[in-house]
């Protein structure tokens, strides 16, 4: 059983690396469309309807994953295929690297208009309010955060709980992106989604920060700087999780992140992470390289944990 899960995780990682996200019919996109339809029916400006909405959607996905996991209990091939498919669905490593690389190229070419057009694929900031430096900063921060959210965290939950862990985590993270932000519409309705996302990312975010420390020298970065920035600056970040890996990336790349952050729903003043200079296009490229290294380390670690965990 454990070997099947471990092999399935590795095959899913390879599938993500080779194929990335399908452009049409991605299960996450289909889930998002279903969640949007349900939101139109269930929305009320209150926490309780939001909690029911979140619980119903996440619970349904976990139940589907549990059925797939159960079907493979005595069929090793089914278990491997189901785990591989769920891993491929849950991961977003190649898409993240592709978007980060294209952003780096646009910034390196001085094509601010192209970079602004592409930024919404990475984060929800207002691109028209950002200059070249701010676009680079937004990209590095998004690459760092999504390395945890789209790579390390799904592998963590997949290693421990298999298909239900992979699909359930992806459902939670998708709902957080849809309704978990602090806009007037979702401040109460999205509260449960946001808090659940905080909980399921508590350990993975810190694992991602630790892997950033370990992987920093591979891209010519500073392991000591990553550790110091993580320990010194992360707690001041408004997110209990994103600040950990963002601070570690800042220290590893010897740059300064944080500061004024402009969203469509308002402006936030973020604490400064790191003590280096402001990021540029070159740092975007290195952030993508570091993300790949962290993802590779997470994949090896997840496969090992799955192999030794008896479930």
Give your account of this protein's structure.
- The chain has 311 residues and is mainly alpha-helical.
- It has one domain (2-308).
- It contains 13 helices and two strands.
- The protein has a two-stranded antiparallel ribbon with strand order 1-2.
- A hairpin with a 2-residue loop joins strand 1 (257-263) and strand 2.
- The longest helix is centred in the middle third of the chain and has 48 residues, at 132-179.
- The relative contact order is 0.15.
- It is a multi-pass membrane protein.
- This is Cobalamin biosynthesis protein CobD.
Give a short summary of the structure.
By secondary structure, the chain is mainly alpha-helical. The protein contains 13 helices and two strands.
Give the overall shape, derived from the CA principal axes: globular
Query: Which parts are unreliable, with pLDDT below 50 for 5 consecutive residues or more?
Result: none
* Amino- and carboxy-terminal Cα gap: 7 Å
Computed Rg: 19 Å
Largest β sheet strand count, sense and barrel closure: 2 strands, antiparallel
Arrangement of strands in the largest sheet: 1-2
Number of domain units: 1
Order of helices and strands: HHHHHHHHHHHHEEH
Helix content: over 70%
DSSP helical segment count? 13
Class inferred from helices and paired strands = mainly alpha
Average residue-wise pLDDT: 94
Count of beta strands:
2
Beta fraction of the residues? under 5%
Core attributes:
mainly alpha, 13 helices, 311 residues, two-stranded antiparallel ribbon
